[in-house]
């Protein structure tokens, strides 16, 4: 093969990579223009408050599709080879499955939290049992439930009616990481103490009976 032919092919490959890189950068820049605004405040009772500004996602997706779609006048160098196209499809299929599994896991986790709050925490609070400190036992679990519900909501909004290739869920975690850290720091900090309290309650027959009744309602 002549040196000129080799150089020509190398230039085509380099150009292809550069164009792919530019398209990905363009996508991220366009995405950031419509970033979701998430603010948090952790009050004295450790409850997290989140607000999210809404954008016209339909118009945004249309503009993004236009910018990401290769134009007719693009050179042949932009066209993927069959092998590259097959590999890309495999990667996108795997990515789509991972995102779906992540969202389903969050749904299951949120459902468990809702059951715990509804069937255990709230009934114990309503009973106002002497010597049973519900707040120390369950810490800020209501705030954990609240932030988990918000996370799931943002994940679903980022993926509903959006083409799999255009779904960007990493931005969701970056936006909500502050409130997540604040709330889970409190929960984790009190975890060992709560476990010790539970063990002490299980030694008292009356308190153990109340706890067992709540656990049975979960089953």
UniProtKB/TrEMBL annotation:
Pfam families: RhoGEF. Residues 94-219 form the DH domain. Transmembrane segments: none annotated. Residues 37-52 have a biased composition (Polar residues). GO terms for cellular component: cytoplasm. GO terms for molecular function: guanyl-nucleotide exchange factor activity. Gene3D superfamilies: Dbl homology (DH) domain. InterPro entries: DBL_dom_sf (IPR035899), DH_dom (IPR000219), Dynamin-Rho_GEF (IPR051492). Residues 37-59 are annotated as: Disordered. This is DH domain-containing protein. It comes from Colobus angolensis palliatus (Peters' Angolan colobus).
């Amino acid at each position: 093969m002549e040196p000129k032919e080799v150089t020509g092919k190398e230039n085509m490959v380099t150009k292809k990579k550069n164009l792919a890189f530019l398209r990905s950068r363009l996508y991220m820049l366009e995405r950031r223009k419509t970033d979701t605004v998430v603010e948090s405040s952790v009050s004295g009772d450790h409850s997290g408050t989140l607000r999210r500004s809404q954008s016209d996602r339909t118009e945004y997706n249309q503009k993004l599709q236009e910018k990401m779609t290769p134009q007719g006048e693009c050179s042949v160098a932009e066209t993927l080879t069959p092998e590259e196209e097959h590999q890309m499809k495999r990667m996108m299929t795997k990515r789509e499955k991972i995102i779906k599994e992540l969202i389903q896991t969050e749904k299951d986790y949120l459902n468990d939290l809702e059951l715990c709050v509804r069937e255990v925490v709230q009934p114990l609070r309503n009973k106002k049992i002497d010597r049973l400190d519900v707040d120390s036992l369950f810490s800020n679990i209501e705030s954990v439930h609240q932030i988990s519900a918000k996370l799931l909501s943002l994940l679903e909004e980022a993926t509903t009616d959006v083409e799999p290739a255009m779904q960007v869920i990493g931005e969701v975690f970056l936006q909500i990481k502050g409130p997540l850290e604040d709330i889970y720091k409190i929960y984790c900090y009190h975890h060992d103490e709560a476990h010790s309290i539970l063990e002490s309650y299980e030694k008292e027959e009356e308190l153990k009976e109340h706890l067992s009744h709540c656990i049975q309602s979960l089953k």
